[in-house]
Write a structure and sequence with these properties.
mainly alpha; 0% strand; 310 residues; 11 helices; single chain
Length: 310
């Protein structure tokens, strides 16, 4: 193995290990972080998407199997998501191929990834806010079966499948947030289980089509699996010891800046966005926390004596 190849493999192992830690800490899908990282490491965009999807299919299958055995997924919701997502996910690679050849295809794919990363950053920020608002309001998710909404769920699956099929981004970020809004009565563990179960056939369909069109680069795929698996395990073990709010805010900023970079925003524009995010995000976060804490205190003051509001 030549020094250059050794350095490339080491870089992939370190990157996949680091991103695996983030996935274990937050439960966020790896495509939003891994695919851009591979591109920045010099892997061609089409190869980055194809190999990341194959690696994700392996990792998500493991997590989905655990949730399935424990009975946490909502099978009705997952079924409608799968029905919408699998066809559009499979079409993704062929849409990319139809965009052109060589540099033209790479430019299209980078732009698509950039837009999807911005969408993922916004939806992930929304997810953090919704969860924070639930806690502040004292909302308790009861152990009830939510009514399945077939058409909206099918459309969410189709849109999420299209994003993943083209860019490999979206199964663990965009779809999760929309499920949170569509089914607020779905308990957190069932939300995660449902998302993981529906993501397996989605990612497999997308991976299969990209393997047909692009193929697999084993020198990329093996380090992704070898580095990502222990990283995810370590991140999961550290999840209770690390501030989730800081990690999540950092992820939103990274996704947003990476999306701008993929869209070829000038360096000064990215630097300005980074400065604004670093300075403004804590202020916005503190303001939201203050308002939610005030609402929670007001709710407690209005509650009858002896009623905790839970």
């Amino acid at each position: 193995m030549t020094p250059d190849i050794t350095a490339d493999v080491l870089a992939l192992l370190v990157t996949s290990f680091g991103i695996g830690i983030v996935i274990g800490l937050t439960g966020m899908g790896g495509g939003a972080l891994m695919t851009p990282a591979l591109i920045f490491l010099g892997v061609p965009p089409t190869s980055a998407v194809a190999n990341d999807l194959v690696a994700a299919a392996v990792n998500k299958s493991t997590g989905a199997a655990v949730h399935w055995r424990e009975g946490s997924p909502h099978r009705g919701i997952a079924t409608w998501l799968i029905a919408g997502s699998v066809p559009t996910a499979f079409a993704g690679a062929f849409i990319v191929r139809a965009a052109g050849e060589g540099d033209e295809r790479d430019a299209f794919l980078k732009a698509a990834i950039g837009v999807t990363l911005l969408i993922a950053a916004c939806t992930y920020a929304l997810r953090v806010y919704v969860e924070m608002r639930r806690k502040a309001s004292g909302q308790v998710v009861r152990a009830v079966e939510p009514t399945v909404r077939p058409l909206p769920t099918l459309l969410v699956g189709a849109f999420g499948g299209l994003l993943v099929g083209i860019t490999s981004v979206g199964s663990g970020s965009v779809i999760m947030v929309v499920l949170l809004v569509l089914y607020p009565a779905l308990a957190g563990v069932r939300l995660v289980g449902t998302d993981l179960v529906q993501a397996v056939p989605l990612v497999m369909a997308a991976a299969f089509s990209h393997v047909i069109v692009t193929g697999i680069d084993w020198s990329v795929l093996i380090p992704l699996v070898v580095g990502g698996t222990p990283g995810t395990f370590l991140g999961a073990r550290l999840a209770n010891r690390v501030s989730q709010s800081i990690v999540r805010r950092g992820i939103v900023l990274v996704l947003f800046l990476t999306g701008l970079s993929m869209l070829k925003v000038p360096p000064w524009g990215i630097a300005a966005a980074a400065a604004l995010g670093l300075a403004g995000a804590p202020l916005v976060w503190r303001m939201l926390r203050t308002r939610l804490d005030q609402a929670r205190q007001a709710r407690r003051n209005l509650a009858p004596e002896g009623d905790s509001g839970a």
